[in-house]
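Hey, quick one: can you model this chain's 3D structure?
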Amino acid sequence: MFRARLSNGSLAHLFRTNVTAKVTVAPRLDGTVLKASVTAMENALTVIDSSVGPISIEMLQLIFEHSENTFIIPKLNEAGEKGFPLPNTVNIKFTNAGIQLENDCVRVFTDVAYNPSTLYFRL
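Sure thing. Here's the predicted structure for all 123 residues.
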């Protein structure tokens, strides 16, 4: 929803849009951290209603594409570079981790190495 602030401080409705985005990512494993980067982004923009007359979809598309390239994709790639670490515990280590792309899902697989604690307690 796009609004404008009036001189009295109130907000006036300008127009509403609907944006549907299809984001394609390339996942990868960096050790035991699942990371990803955006490889493509497609979007569809529509104006739902307008209080200010006709709105140019082409102009909105240009503005959205500029926002995509300067803000949205870089922020998604920044989060993707931080990644998502595979869970880790003291006695369990994940080894030979891999990634497999399937229809509409990403499968992360790994071997599990278990090292029981060698601490002994005397009573």
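One thing worth noting: DSSP finds one helix and six strands in the chain.
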